[in-house]
Amino acid sequence: MLVTAEPQKAPTDGVTGTENHSLGGITFKLANAQEGTRNDVLHWCVCRAAEMTPRKQKSALRAIRHEARMIGLDDQEIEKTVSSVFGGRRG
């Protein structure tokens, strides 16, 4: 009889979330977002930050905000997205 083991989840340190959601990967995804998808990608990135430990969220959101500005989103768009993810409380 063949017994298969359950796949193990990658370890997390509160910043990476999972092996596919490192902060570098998150900001890379945002940096490469195509026009017309930038707000949706920003939302996805902020959601990944929301999954991090509170201590790591601050630096993650700072990096995400910076990258969002670099791709041409304005502060109002960015803060509206952050507020939508964090339920009105500032992330």
Could you characterize the architecture of this molecule?
The chain is an all-alpha fold. The protein has a domain at 23-85. Helices cover 55% and strands 0% of the residues. The longest helix has 17 residues, at 54-70.
Please outline the helices and strands.
Elements: H1 23-31, H2 38-50, H3 54-70, H4 75-85
Helix pairs in contact: 1-2, 1-3, 2-3, 2-4
Question: What structural class do the secondary elements suggest?
Answer: mainly alpha
Quaternary structure: single chain
Rg calc = 15 Å
End-to-end CA span: 51 Å
Overall helicity: 40-55%
**Strand segment tally:** 0
Low-confidence stretches: 7-20
Instruction: Identify the overall geometry.
Output: globular
Strand percentage = under 5%
Average pLDDT, rounded to a whole number, is 82
Please give the largest β-sheet. none
Q: How many separate helices?
A: 4
SSE sequence, one letter per element: HHHH
Brief write-up:
The chain is mainly α. It has four helices and no strands. The termini are far apart.
Keywords, separated by commas or semicolons:
mainly alpha, globular
